[in-house]
Prior knowledge:
The protein is mainly beta. 8% of the residues lie in helices and 34% in strands. It folds into two domains: 3-84, no CATH class; 128-498, Methylamine Dehydrogenase, Chain H (7 Propeller), CATH 2.130.10. The protein contains three helices and 31 strands. Strands 3-4-31-30-29 form a five-stranded antiparallel sheet, with no helix packed on it. It has a four-stranded antiparallel sheet with strand order 5-6-7-8, with no helix packed on it. Residues 1-27 are annotated as: Disordered.
Amino acid sequence: MSIHSSQDSSDSEYHPAAQDLDINNDDEDEDGFLDVEDIMDQGYEVDGFSTDAETDIILDVLFFNMQNLRSSIVMYNCILRTLINIDFSETIIPMESTFPKIYNPRKNTTIIRSLWKPKLYPQNTFYIPSSPPAITNPTPARSNSTRDILTPVSRLRSRIYSGQFSQDGTFFFSCAQDFRVRLYDTTDAYDWKQYKTIQGAYGSWTITDSDLSPDNKWVIYSTIDPVVFLARTDQEDDELKALRMGSAYCRCGIWSVRWSADAKEIVAGASDSSIYLYDVEQNRVTLRLGGHKEDVNAVSFGDHSSNILFSGSDDSYIKVWDRRSLHGGKESGVLIGHTEGITFIEGKGDGRYLVSNSKDQSCKLWDIRKMLNKDTDSLPDYSVGNFDYRYMPYPGPRCARHPLDCSVNTYTGHSVLKTLIRCHFSPCGGFLYSGSEDGNGYIWNIDGSLKKRIPFGGDGSCLRDVSWHPYEPIIAGSLWVEDQGFRGAEGGMVVRAQWGQNTI
């Protein structure tokens, strides 16, 4: 239904509503609005009706008046802006506009975001929960923020067993249960690029350990077989060598491997209670040490000369070996203090200090000058019987402290369960840090106080290894994760944690 004026409408251009109604400025009241009587007096004909169409006329009048009201609002807005100098341009919503279906918080943070460089926004970051909760908007990777940022680097369908930065920070490598070693270019510590995947020879169960040579040219990895594999880090070189540790009849597995400082030798800890030293240039085992009673889960070179060796075993003892004085293949001393098996050890590189993790749920700092000359075969056993750390919670120690504990300090709070959780020295040497079965990374001051806890993973995750970048405020975590949304499927993740300023 439309309304047509019987008069000429050539003058009706000022008001939009006067396109069909022959209305101009002269028909407005003093207040700028139209009256129904003004329109009715003009004598309109209504299509389809022979009677007056007062109802339809009233609706058109109301529409016109609403348009006029909007003009008045704009005028009042201009007056207010002049008087109090406040910009209402974003708060006045035009009548013809509609609200967005999804609220976009970016519109409310335009000024704040302009302070940062947009190109530095991480595309897949999430924040470590804090108290009070941190703002959940992305923060530039290299900002002055005091908030901690977690960035997933990779997600796999297989568990990740180790992951470490190179000594110069330009490489990161990780090994997983799918028998692949993944190499990342971390020249830019905030923008990793995976450039190579080494498909290893399939062995028993998983890759247990890996290590990068000091010159960044070679990576070694071990499995639960008596063989260590050697591969090039060069993207174009797919050479893979097998280095046999035991004899042709040996059926042991290798739990730990480490390069020497000159990249000429490899030390390995095996399930046959032995330590093997392999000469890469001669392509043969040059030394075998058998001083432990159970699996050797961890080995490490003590200094850059490669003369000092450390080994940690499920027999709870850490043994110190000096290749210059191996009398009958016997250790130089033993470090006593843990009451359960050793899961990991790492030397500081000065031939004096080392750090260890144990199934007794503690991390310890050692000074080899305090080592004991004891026959471990004659010492009493302080371990908890019938305890399998892979499936059971720790029931607690039999004694509060080992009677012969010679460690410098003890660090607790983390959980060493399910797997061989690892611990390390920070690059500056001022902190110790460790993974944990609860998915958190723990950083301690040397005095034993907890400095920081970084929640790398959520429920069902296990942080097996951690690696501190040599000069950036970054720790990379290698996780076991359980995907609750995929029938509880197990997998692995590498997560990069960057902490804010003044938090460490």
